[in-house]
Amino acid sequence: MSTAVQLALGVGVPDPHRSDGPTVVSLAAARTIAAVAEQVGLAAIRLVDGGPSGRTLDPTVVAGYLAGVHGGVGYVTEIPTTRHAPYNVARRVLSLDRATAGRVGIALQAGQGDEVSAVTAPVPDATDPTRRWTEYARVLTRLWESFPQSALIGDQQAGVVVDTARVTPINHEGVFYRVAGPLDGPSSRQGRPVIVADLGALDATAVAESVDVVVVDRSSAADADATVTEALGRVGRSRHDVALLGRADLAGYTPATAGTYGDELRDWAAEHRLDGVELVAKGGSDAIVTALRTVVPRLTDPASTPATLRAALGLSEVAAVLA
Amino acid sequence: MSRQLHLNVNILNAGVFGGSWRFPGTDATASYTIAHYTSIAKKAEQAKLDAVFLADGPALDPSIAHRTGNNLEPSTVLARIAAQTERIGLIATLSSSYNDPVEVARRLGDLDHVSGGRFGWNVVTTAGSVAARNFGRASEPEHAQRYRRAAEFATHVVASWAARTDLVSPQGRPVVVQAGGSRDGRRLAAQVGEVIFSADQDLAHARAFRAEIRAGAAEFGRRPEEVVILPGISTVVGSTEAEARARRALLDDLLPDAYARARLAGQLGFSLDGLSDDEPIPAELLVEPDAAGGSQTFFRIVKTIIDTENPTLGQLLKKLSGGAGHRIVVGTPEQIADDIETWFRAGAADGFNVMPDVLPSGFDDFADHVVPELQRRGLFRTEYDGRTLREHLGLPLPSAHLEVTAS
Lengths: 323, 407
Description:
The complex is a heterodimer of chains A (323) and B (407). In chain A, 35% of the residues lie in helices and 21% in strands. Chain A has helices spanning 27-40, 59-67, 86-99, 115-118, 129-144, 204-207, 221-234, 258-271, 285-299, 309-312, 318-322; strands spanning 4-14, 24-25, 44-47, 54-56, 74-80, 104-109, 152-155, 160-162, 172-173, 178-179, 194-198, 213-217, 243-250, 276-281. Chain A has an 8-stranded parallel beta barrel, surrounded by 6 helices. A two-stranded antiparallel ribbon of chain A has the order 7-8. In chain A, strands 9-10 form a two-stranded antiparallel sheet. In chain A, a hairpin with a 4-residue loop joins strand 7 (152-155) and strand 8. The model of chain A has no long low-confidence stretch (mean pLDDT 94). In chain B, strands 1-2-3-4-5-6-7-9 form an 8-stranded parallel beta barrel, surrounded by 8 helices. With 407 residues, chain B is of the alpha/beta class. Chain B has 2 domains: 6-242 and 324-393, TIM Barrel (Alpha-Beta Barrel); 256-320, no CATH class. Helix content of chain B is 42%, strand content 13%. In chain B, 59% of the residues are buried. The radius of gyration of chain B is 20 Å and the shape is globular. Classes of the chains: A alpha/beta (323), B alpha/beta (407). Chains A and B meet through helix 2, helix 3, helix 4, strand 7 and strand 8 of A and helix 2 and helix 3 of B.
């Protein structure tokens, strides 16, 4: 069985004195890494926002830019709820997803609110980041489905662009947000962008309803499958609806042992019923390139060319899930 | 070298005319694909234009049943265009009412860096309750309040760019673009705008507008020549005048009537239901522009046409042709170049924000025939001199520290 691989990487200005977070590389180095990622069959590059190892560029800007050059790999953009109204994030991420023909996801980070939404928050003093995350993710998924691709008709004879009967507002009214919708553009080739959640920062119950990919730290990997399965079951979803990735550093080996490291990761994934791994970039860009070339082929088949990020992660497309 | 024109292309989905997406030979839904935008940007770069421009509002346009709408978020589109081009400037519209200034400052400053100093931010306040409802509001904030926030927002964003020490771009910071023609909008333009998009049907009015903005900039302690004023111009190009007129007539025929009425009702802020195409709009329905709550610029333009020409509703709809109220110029490449040259030499414009009738075909005609004519006349560059948007526009590098002027 193929194991999906995602690389976590920051793009911006490295801090030469720090190396405790994911590596931050320059935009030029990121282009090189994205080219290699495309060749070796990486599912996605997760573009880290912030972190201790340097100042990062906005992940949606980087994703838009890199996908314009290397469109054969997926891009997962880290975006916090803080300072971002959900309608704006839904639009931006879906725009990226449509531009890449369905290769984009969001790693939504739990946080605080934004000043625009705060003015009209249904419960003004609500602050719990986890509850906010749950509501935010629900708003995203509903907005992404508010304008189905099939509603875009473009009938020149009849003078009809969109069948508006199939475009529906979401009229969301929750604790943190009030969002009418619908979105301004149609759904993407993969149905909707992928939502990624980090277990630990968030609990499985909080993310169960909307998540597509759960990432778990190496130390918690042993229990993750059972925890996630149970949480999904409680909301009527199957474990097959979600890809579970174990997080591991892309470091701690020599070129000679890199292949062995890849084998170890594959066995580790199989042992804990992980669907893939998130490799956290460590070291310089040359080391990352070398590691991708040696480690990834042990995990994933470079000859397989999935059409979308969902397919690369072994997930069904949303339309199929909804049918 | 003599003063040179500045030209942007406004990639307004399928084109500025309401019937553009139905024009023969046009792919009806091409404007819902990213390739539509990247290929027009590449063409604009070949034609040595200053920039591509993307209008935007965070909402689904209610007229979507009958005409294409803007449907891709501009900062993501321009990041992709930045990766696939070298020189062309990149201008995106982002709302000051519905964004967080810290977030926008970071994202747009980063886009400027990633593009090598080619980015410009068009600050808009976003009229309309449709957008408001996507951010929890029942209706838009009141006009003056929107502009107060816009001024504070823009000042904050520019100050944040000025304070950057890393990930800075070769042009120092993004160019600030402003488009409001209302009293509040003109004040904001004079205060922070480096490029002003205006909408004017009349040369004398446009010349007065330009003079007012330049004088206003001076009052804020700025140099008037550091403000570039670009009226919108909708172009319908034909190889003969008759061909151009036929193209315009066909576009009028293709305009879905339901759309034209809905669009005008939105611009005027009242319903047109029950009004006959054969009679003028009753005068009592028309308030003074400064009292209009939505886009005062377009209200003023439409009201001026009504006041001066007293058209029937049907004639008015045809004149506007579902466009945004910008001036429509129909003719051969030479005639369109004549018009552009006249406005430019009269001091009514520093250049134009070109809104082709149909995209991509109308822009191809403009780039292939009107631009070379302007180049022959020595009015427009034949090669880029610089690499950044500021260099294209002839704007100086901003000083490292923001000079905050009291308003």
